[in-house]
Known about the structure:
The chain is α+β, with helices and mostly antiparallel strands. Helix content is 21%, strand content 26%. It has a five-stranded mixed beta sheet with strand order 4-3-2-1-5. A hairpin with a 5-residue loop joins strand 2 (46-50) and strand 3. The longest helix has 11 residues, at 26-36.
Amino acid sequence: IIPMLIDPDSIRVLIYNIPVDMRRAIDGLSATVAEQLRESPASGTLYVFYNDRKDKLKVLYWERNGFCLFYKRLEKGRFKLPSPGDKTITISKQQLRWLLDGLDISKLKG
């Protein structure tokens, strides 16, 4: 669904590489972006968040006049996320598609 909603290939996709509580909604995730990343949540960047078990992802995005929140939960398995280390990791829109498909983005090349 993300590729249908987000057209520009140049869009910035940023993984917040610290697990978050998935009970957080738009306001809580926006506060994380502002306070922890020191960025504007309304910048047009897609912010990707995940939980401790890595079986849930949320993507926060500002579109023209309001926030969008995409949530995906895997019924089996875990998302193949980059190893902990940097607080944020920038990925391409293609890598986001792969990630949402359950693929290991560290092993794939465009």
